[in-house]
Amino acid sequence: MSRLAAKFEEFSKTGRKALIPFITAGDPNPDFTVPMMHAMVAAGADIIELGVPFSDPMAEGPVIQRACERALTHKMSLRRVLIMASQFREKDQQTPLVLMGYVNPIEAMGYEGFANAAQRADIDGVITVDLPPEEGEEYVALLKAREIDPIFLLAPNISDERIKKVAAAGSGYLYYVSLKGVTGAGHLNTAEVEIKLKQIRANAALPVTIGFGVKDAETAKIIAGLGDGVIVGSALVSKIEANQDDVEIARSEIVKLLTSMRQAIDS
Amino acid sequence: MTEKYSMPDERGHFGPYGGMFVADTLMPPIQELNAAYQQYLKDPDFITELDTDLKHYVGRPSPLYHAERWSRELGGAQIYLKREDLNHTGAHKVNNTVGQALLAKRMGKTRIIAETGAGQHGVATATVAARLGLECVVYMGSVDVARQSLNVYRMKLLGAKVVAVESGSKTLKDALNEALRDWVTNVDNTFYIIGTVAGPHPYPAMVRDFQAIIGREAKQQCQDQAGRLPDALVACVGGGSNAIGLFYPFIDDKSVKMFGVEAAGDGIETGRHSAPLCAGRPGVLHGNRTYLMEDEDGEIIETHSISAGLDYPGVGPEHAWLKDIGRVEYVNITDNQALEGFHALTKMEGIIPALESSHAMAYAMKLAPTMKTDEIIIVNLSGRGDKDMHTMAQREGIEL
Fold first, then answer.
1. Reduced to 3 states, what is the DSSP secondary structure of residue B2?
2. DSSP 8-state code for residue B187
3. Of B174, B181, B285, the CB nearest to A182
4. For residue B75, is it left (φ>0), alpha (ψ between -120 and 50) or beta?
5. Phi/psi of residue A229, each to 5°?
6. In chain B, what percentage of residues exceed pLDDT 90?
7. So what's the architecture of B23-54+93-207 in CATH?
8. What is the distance between the alpha carbons of residues A7 and A5, in angstroms, rounded to a whole number?
9. What percent of chain A has pLDDT over 70?
10. How much is the average pLDDT of B156-185?
11. Residues B286-314 pLDDT 10s
12. Testing the interface with A: which of B299, B300, B303 to mutate, by most A Cβ within 10 A?
């Protein structure tokens, strides 16, 4: 059983909701990332999503676009992200680690080469934003053969048929994007999310995490109540952006936000 | 090729290229668009309305003009120019925007968005949006906004909102990213008019089908004027819509050679160019697999060309396929060579071409002398050069 599956199985017994922070690897500089990952685990993160910087992050809002640009000025690359993952694993063999990025860097490495490298780096899951199940059959099979979970996004405008298709291709968990559009956007309509979650549950057995729009402890708690976990990305990356010149402040702000989210979710 | 050419497959693949590489948020609108397109493609009312607009609004058919003086000067093949520069708005782009706007209207969309590089597609989109009374937002890299200020002004006059994109390299690819972001955020009321044969399926096939009128007309006009098929076709390739529009109706005519001309910028060897087919490799960007300009880690690298319309790191997936099967030969022309083409056509024929089209002119100047005087080259004069006066004047040290 994959680390992610084991984690969610455990949570289904204890009732714990997964808190899943996202940061972009190498933002604001490469030295920041691995210590930040450990600090996020200490603050209550159950799973970590690590963004792989890409020059053309089409599904991201301005906050994560700029994070990608900052990371790329330090010549971050998929290969270097995999090295960071291995460094993280030296001290932490428990926390599932998920990479999130775009398919072109993976194509450049080759699907099989990437699957092998991800296995060596002990990666648990991969979200490949612009690789839907239709285009990713070979890729998904290569990941699954190595017990790496291919994780797919579900959009608000999705049909029953498509939920079934995505759930069949994916494993680990499903990532429901609770707002139409790009990361870090607009307002959150919880009633709408609730209805959508019912539809997803009726068509898919995988755990469902919810992201895009989680800003603070209060929204984290509400969202956690609707699904199996909450993903918080842009809110954390904003802290990094606001404190690029003093990364210690960025780190403590992120820890503070995650700690408050953890407490709110568990209360 | 012994069988009739019939690309793409139903999911938009041209061999290994093309496809639908998009985030799941985009899947429903793309499927909706594809269904509508497949439906109206066969709808006689739609076709009639499109043909009427192309005739009375765009001014089609565009002439096929025998550039006799220039041909004589070059001393080889007879050069015929397909005069897309004479279309309303001054380039081939309008063939596609008229088609997509009619589709948007049929689908009940009230808001149009577009990306633009040189601004020709933005102007062509703003034009049709104005005519149909639709809200229009055009995304344009801030670098392009600066070098194509005339077209920015035209778009604003037409009632479009022009958004200067400051992310990434601030050029066409970033404008496309931003337009895709707008689309996923506003899918309910918004139609995204992509200007070239790129993007996820069905765009590469749909834009080609709207542009293929160029080649259909040219084929008929060549028959009427010369009594036979041409021997060669030449067109510039950025995303590749004017080229595929000319080439597509000739793909099964094996005697017709085809040349796609990429922008070599400062020269392929300098790395400062926009020639993915000549010097890139396959990857995935903007929803399709195609040849790209990228580094060894798969990050997209910045492109360079004197012509904003060719300044794009990818190329339509059908061109990638036509390259691999050897049906089209892809060549390249530097900035300086393009300027020679620009001046030659201007002086010899009294026609000022766009800098994009000047790349095709420059290649025709190389090709014609290698051919016999009874052979025929059709060169796509995809746009007129008015928009490039500032760039040209600046390059030649003249203050306007």
1. coil
2. T
3. B181
4. left
5. -175, 160
6. 88
7. 3-Layer(aba) Sandwich (3.40)
8. 5
9. 96
10. 92
11. 999 999 999 999 999 989 999 988 989 99
12. B299
Nearest Cα residue to A258 out of A84, A82, A97, A49:
A49
**Sign of the four-CA dihedral A23, A26, A29, A30:** positive
Can B23-54+93-207 and B59-90+213-395 be said to share one CATH topology? yes
Partner B contacted by A55 (CB < 8 A):
yes
Residues 6 or more apart whose Cβ sits within 8 Å of residue B42: none
Q: Residue A181 above 70 pLDDT?
A: no
CA distance B309 to B330: 17
- Reported confidence tier of residue A213, pLDDT bands at 50, 70, 90: confident
Q: Alpha carbon A81 to chain centroid distance? A: 14
Can the peptide bond before residue A156 be classed as cis, meaning omega within 30 degrees of 0? no
CATH class of B59-90+213-395: alpha beta
**Pair type for strands B78-83 and B64-66:** antiparallel
Place of tokens 């690897």: A25
Q: What is the ipTM, given to two decimal places?
A: 0.93
Distance from A90 to chain B by nearest Cα, in Å?
Answer: 25
Locate the domains of chain B by residue range.
23-54+93-207, 59-90+213-395
pLDDT, residue B109, reads 97
Total tally of structural domains belonging to chain A:
1
The residue in chain B having the minimum alpha-carbon distance to the alpha carbon of residue A183 is: B181
pLDDT at A185 over 90: no
A128 in the Ramachandran plot: left (φ > 0), alpha (ψ -120 to 50) or beta? beta
CB B375 within 8 A of CB B77: yes
Closest-CA residue to B300 (of A104, A84, A28): A104
Q: What angle, rounded to 10 degrees, do the helices at A247-266 and A217-226 form?
A: 50
Which positions in chain B touch A65 (Cβ < 8 Å)? 167-168
Quote the CA–CA distance of A33 and A23 in Å, as a whole number: 8
How do residues A111-159 score in pLDDT, each as one tens digit?
999 999 999 999 999 999 999 999 999 999 999 999 999 999 998 888 9
Q: Is A78 in CB contact (< 8 Å) with chain B?
A: yes
pLDDT digits (tens, 9 = 90+) for B363-391: 999 999 999 999 999 999 999 999 899 88
pLDDT band with cut points at 50, 70 and 90 for residue B2 = low
Q: What is the pLDDT of residue A158?
A: 86
Nearest CA in chain A to B173: A56
Judge residue B88's burial from the number of C-beta atoms within 10 Å of its C-beta, 0-12 exposed, 13-18 middle, 19 or more buried.
middle
Give the list of residues 6+ apart from residue B242 with CB closer than 8 angstroms, or none.
B84, B91, B92, B211, B214, B235, B236, B356, B380, B382, B383
Q: What is the mean pLDDT of residues B169-187?
A: 90
Measured CA to CA, the distance from residue A242 to residue B309 in angstroms comes to 36
A212 pLDDT higher than 90 = no
A236: which 2 tokens?
A: 């954390």
Which residue's structure tokens are 């009633």? A191
Q: Are B290 and B18 in contact (CB under 8 A)?
A: yes
At A92, which CATH number? 3.20.20.70
**Which tokens go with B137?**
């937002």
Is residue B1 over pLDDT 50?
Answer: no
